[in-house]
Amino acid sequence: MTAVAFVRGVSSSFEQCVTARPPDPPLNPELAATQHAQYVAALERGGYQVIAVPVDDDLADSSFIEDTAVVVGTRVLITRPGHPSRRHEVETVAAALTSRFPLHRVRRPAMIDGGDVLKMGSSIFVGRSDRTNEEGILAIAAIAEPLGMSVTSVPVARVLHLKSGVSALDDGTLLWHRDACEREVFDGFEVLEVVGDDPEAANVVRLADGGILVAEHHPETAALVTGKGFTVATTDVSEFARADGGLTCLSIRVR
Fold it and tell me: Which of 40, 103, 161, 232 is the most exposed place for a label (fewest CB within 10 A)?
């Protein structure tokens, strides 16, 4: 199967993104659109076929497409995002995915954001956060466990999503920041600690060709990953970082 990445371009209302603190200066939709195009090009160079979901200028956060769907094996779970303003994003994404995957849906009171779902081979770790509740985690388990996958609930500490401070380099190795969760959750995996004050430095994308995409403003992460023998590519996503987003947030990837 061809490695596919679904993306959604930047809304003209991007400056109204839901953020923990109002960005100063305000978010710049034009700069974000330029950076998004560079991100898409990096995915393509890394071996993904990129499929663009239509932009909706009324949905400020919709470029953070990862939160709307979770791919588990050959199945897709259409989420019910934790922030009410984001629940209108899912139907257009579902329409783009329905011709390729069997779709399952999260129903209330469950809520889940894709940014809380970390897949490591047959192990799935799901952050229990302000955006994902226990019912949402059970919804993941309902489609994953019949496929022989294990699902582990992970209390999220001081970040928005689990993957705001943890991400995979391969099926056995991950980057981790102390603010994301307890390290012991990942016993049995090789854990590389990312130091510093920004948990998003531990957020990277596994490319289809085995390389790792790192945010340009995190050179220490690039050096750490290179030191482990991975080929590293970088791209500028600084405007998305100001909107509380990271690299993984900007695509739904199927390798």
Answer: 103
Cβ(113)–Cβ(132) below 8 Å: yes
Catalytic residue among 36, 161, 177, 218: 161
Q: Two tokens at 100?
A: 């390729």
What span, in angstroms and rounded, lies between the C-alpha atoms of 161 and 166?
9
The 49-53 sheet, strands edge to edge: 49-53, 4-8, 252-254
What pLDDT, in 10s, does the model give residues 95-111? 999 999 999 999 999 99
Residue 255 banded pLDDT, cuts 50, 70, 90: confident
Cα separation, 146 vs 58, whole angstroms: 38
Cα 143 from Cα 112, distance rounded (Å): 14
Q: Is 161 a catalytic residue?
A: yes
CA-to-CA distance for 165 and 156, rounded, in angstroms?
Answer: 10
CA-based max dimension of the chain: 48
User: Residue 249 catalytic?
Assistant: yes
Q: pLDDT, tens digit, for every residue of 27-81?
A: 999 999 999 999 999 999 999 999 999 999 999 999 999 999 999 998 999 999 9
In order, the DSSP letters of 132-175 are --HHHHHHHHHHHGGGT-EEEEEE--SSSSGGGSEEEEETTEEE
Pick the CATH number of 4-254 from 3.75.10.10, 3.40.50.300, 3.90.226.10, 3.10.20.310: 3.75.10.10
Domain boundaries, the chain: 4-254
Q: Which residues contact 25 (CB under 8 A, 6 or more apart)?
A: none
